[in-house]
Amino acid sequence: MVVTRRRTFSALLICARFGQKCLSWTTSSRSAVRFESRNVRSSHTSLSAGDIREKLRAFPGGSIDLKKRESGMAVITINNPARMNAFSGSMMLELEERVHELETWSEGKGVIVQGAAGTFCSGSDLNAVRAISNPQDGMKMCEFMQTTLTRLLRLPLISVALVEGKALGGGAELTTACDFRLMTSCGVIQFVHKQMGLVPGWGGASRLVHIVGSQNSLKLLAGAKKVDPEFGKQIGLVDEVLHCTSGERNTLDQGEQWLSQFIKGPEAVIRAVKRVVLSGRELPLEEALTAERNVFGTVWGGPANLEALALKTKHK
Length: 316
Ligand SMILES: CC[C@H](C(=O)O)C(=O)SCCNC(=O)CCNC(=O)[C@H](O)C(C)(C)COP(=O)(O)OP(=O)(O)OC[C@H]1O[C@@H](n2cnc3c(N)ncnc32)[C@H](O)[C@@H]1OP(=O)(O)O
Hints:
16% strand, cytoplasm, Enoyl-CoA_hyd/isom_CS, 11 strands, EC 4.1.1.94, alpha/beta, Ethylmalonyl-CoA decarboxylase
């Protein structure tokens, strides 16, 4: 079922119930969110406000690069080093395209999101932001990024934000659209929005509350507090601290090694794991249980299950 949105552009209204009947934005086009067979799914096309695309296209620069490996691991690189990997308008559009490519990648198991040249991402490109600083365009840009980042989070892949250097503003929000956050010992995540006279708008506040709770979210947003690896681990924002790049192993290698422990095995099983966790995270209990049964049905008696039974696998 595709949830249709009203054509009136007004305040964002997210229903408290995050299930089949209720995920509605009173914004300008159809939602990209789709619920099929009571499983949380993302649709393959973002149907965000069309005219904002034109405006975003007018701010080129940088790129969003995607590499898909035979191992089932992909790497997205936020690539705009001259501006500390800030998101130009064209990069916002490219991110949506890359997410779409991953939605249709049936062999995928995991994805790492990293920044180019030793830093993560400094948020929106302030030059583009200045040119669309009226509330209507700001909300449309946010809607576009919210939809894309929701689709990123809902990929049937285990996702990791690899934070080397700085993740600021929208860059901090991007980290919350991944399942895990790894940080180098010299990394910083900072929701600088308050210092810009703003609040997060790419869905980062909503996701942050789920990750670290409302008390910690208030501290991070109202205090624009710098999160270093130690504090990040303490509040549950950071899952693992990596060494700052030196010598033989670079940060991406470390990130890949960390992720590989979770994507060992057949893709059907890994993707099923992500789906049941997603349902548990987003759906009310009854619907999550139904979704879990449905996903279970896709692996029960499947090749990996039969092989484990035949091998009389022991879990010592
Ligand atoms: C909802 C999301 C939210 C929004 O859209 O409303 C946002 O994300 S707002 C943006 C939040 N981010 C910022 O405000 C970052 C501002 N920049 C900085 O604080 C610093 O530049 C920093 C800490 C990222 C890097 O400092 P450092 O001393 O290491 O380097 P420089 O300052 O010399 O930066 C190098 C070069 O990059 C340009 N730059 C950095 N960030 C941005 C950005 N977000 N947009 C555009 N350009 C950016 C900076 O201006 C320098 O360019 P140069 O031509 O050399 O002056």
